Amino acid sequence: MEGELSVIVVEDDPIAAKILIEALRGNGVHPSLHTHGSDALRELASSPSCRAILIDLSLPDMEGMDLLREARRINPGLACFILTARNHVESAVTAMKAGALDYFTKPFDLPKVVTTVRETLKTINPKLNKNFILRDDHWKSKAMLEAIRLADIAAASDKPLLISGPNHSGKTYFARNIHTRRQEKPSEFITVDLVSLTAKQAEIVLFGANLQQADSSLKLGSGLLYSRSKLTVCIRSVDRLSPLSQTLLLGWLKLSSEINTPHRTTIRLITTTSEDLSQLVAKQLFVSDLFYALSTYHIWVPGLAERVEDIPQLSEDIITSICVEQQRKRPTLTPQALEILSDHIWPGNVSELWSVLSHAMAVTKDGLITEADLPNLNSLIASNQKISHLPKSVMSIDDLNRAALVSTLEACGGNRRRAAKKLKVSLRTVYNMIKRYDL
What we know:
Elements: E1 5-10, H1 14-24, E2 29-34, H2 37-46, E3 52-56, H3 64-74, E4 79-85, H4 89-97, E5 102-106, H5 110-122, H6 142-155, E6 161-164, H7 171-182, E7 188-193, H8 199-207, E8 231-236, H9 243-256, H10 263-266, E9 267-273, H11 277-282, H12 288-294, E10 297-300, H13 311-326, E11 332-333, H14 335-343, H15 349-363, E12 368-369, H16 397-411, H17 416-423, H18 427-436
């Protein structure tokens, strides 16, 4: 219904259901009612515009917790609320730890229910972010779980944070998520992308002065970092800072660490880089003291090559997000198509995966994304790479392992999953060997 906010209510108690539906209806919320979890999931899968779901913990066909998990899998951006009896509050709290936003006990405090649901829906953007919720129960890879663990620690502090990782791996989203979680009062998140700025422009934006111009009318201290407002400033590609800006930033960090300066608590600095700053320090291209000051907290955001186990879930999240954005029914990714996605190296990381799935969804038919719907994915493994023809008597164990891996990958057309089966090792072992031998 145009202009109204779509909500699914899953409640098998007819009296409780009637009370909820009547309270929500007429207050800018358009509720639909189901008594079975399976029916609610079918509507959720076919209605990407749905913004929230209210779930009774006790349903005839499934547990409310199972419905919660499946609903969040279908739509990661869905706002979930739990309905429960007063003597089951502990279960509701467990559900909140699994991703529910709040719970309502029976008999319902209707004004609270309506207000909470309406206010929550106002904050939800129907177009999901291209990166995804940092929940440790959402991913399987150790690399991503470690990044989330460090993000949890960094979110509780206002100290400088350095986020590094490959291009398009989600560094800026980590920064924004940490900002959102730590703020006590509404504050602004501002990104300064050094890729799009000249050295002089960066000096003006960050510090308020171009010190290379003697007649500059701007004064040092009028830039973004000297704002009196409560801000999180995210400097992207900090490795591109000019020597002068590095010196100015180090001076600002020393000033902001002093107890009596106002900037100590009003500005939280986050920087990102795809370069190894320690190597730049070794080459004297980056000030060592600045590197240490920026990396009070340091998070490495893994690329997709380091989190192969997450590709199935990430693909599902992207498909769901595109469906929400385009207001369309959700197609199913076939196992064969998923295998191809899992076997690709993804040099463009999340952005590349997003592009590939956007293409597939544009051409797919019959509600299935098949191998034929995927664009051509050129593997980065050099399948024609020559093996050094050393005599076997002088080949090391590593040489033999490398030769076996290259030969098997060639025989399998670069397909890592099939190569792992032939070598009788795990897929993760194959990826580790590829990285170790720089293939």
